[in-house]
Design brief:
alpha/beta, 7-stranded parallel beta sheet, Fungal_SecMetab_SDRs, SDR_fam, NAD(P)-bd_dom_sf
């Protein structure tokens, strides 16, 4: 039986940092977690655990992604382990967002696409090899879904050109990746997108005003909702985008 492991990238701020704590509480100590960081400086609240493995990774730097994947191969040999959950949450919203076509700056568009679209694509390239194949015998684990899940974080498109462009492209990437997984892994692995709602993080700080209190989440609340949706997905929901309520987000 192939043993599961979890990938979380990034892991030091906002939802991802809360999600790391949630994973350590919600999954058995036997399941290792590979968490990525961009700098050696960690927040004082960063957890310590024997099953937590840290690697440096910057989604704008493919060699660092390749190096992190090589480390994963050492820690979790593919003949005995498989990537069961890939929770990939890189994202950037450059401010002020362009509300008019006249405000577009080429360098901002390129930077947004590098982080929000190309970064996740490179993660797929180097880490998808760890997902289970059709013939992989997955060891059952009650705290995890029966199939592997690759989940990307996204927000619903708004009237912000660079951000909307990057996230629409990511939606297409997720769907295309899931089609490939359906061929290689059948029902053993799926790919989906996820919309967490408006969360009190640095990324959304300028947009909290006007959001109802019951729809403005703390990172801890957002992490719990993400985990609940993730663990309740089934293979019929593959290739789509789901929100914090478990409802499909239209294309």
């Amino acid at each position: 039986m192939s043993q599961p492991w979890i990938l979380l990238t990034p892991s030091t701020r906002g939802i991802s940092h809360s999600l790391l704590h949630h994973l350590l509480r919600s999954t058995p100590p036997s399941i290792p977690i590979l968490a990525t960081v961009r700098t050696p400086s960690l927040p004082s609240s960063y957890p310590k655990s024997d099953r937590l493995h840290l690697v440096n990774l910057d989604v704008k730097d493919e060699p660092s992604i390749q190096s992190a994947a090589a480390k994963a191969s050492e820690l979790f040999p593919r003949d005995t382990h498989h990537l069961h959950l890939a929770l990939t949450l890189p994202g950037v919203l450059l401010t002020p967002p362009e509300k008019s076509i006249s405000q577009i700056k080429e360098e901002n568009v390129i930077e947004t696409l590098r982080v929000n679209t190309l970064g996740p694509l490179m993660l797929m390239k180097h880490f998808s090899v760890f997902l289970p194949k059709k013939a992989t015998e997955i060891a059952p684990e009650p705290s995890l879904p029966g199939h592997a899940t690759w989940k990307h974080h996204r927000q619903p498109p708004r009237g912000w050109y660079s951000y909307r462009l990057s996230k629409s492209a990511l939606n297409s990437t997720i769907k295309t990746f899931d089609l490939e997984l359906a061929q290689k892994s059948a029902g053993k692995a799926i790919a989906v997108g996820y919309h967490p709602g408006t969360v009190k993080t640095d990324l959304s700080h300028d947009f909290w005003e006007g959001v109802p209190d019951d729809k403005l989440f703390s990172p801890d609340d957002a992490a719990a909702k993400l985990w609940n949706v993730t663990t309740n997905l089934n293979t019929k929901q593959r290739g789509k985008v789901w929100d914090w309520k478990g409802e499909e987000v239209p294309p």
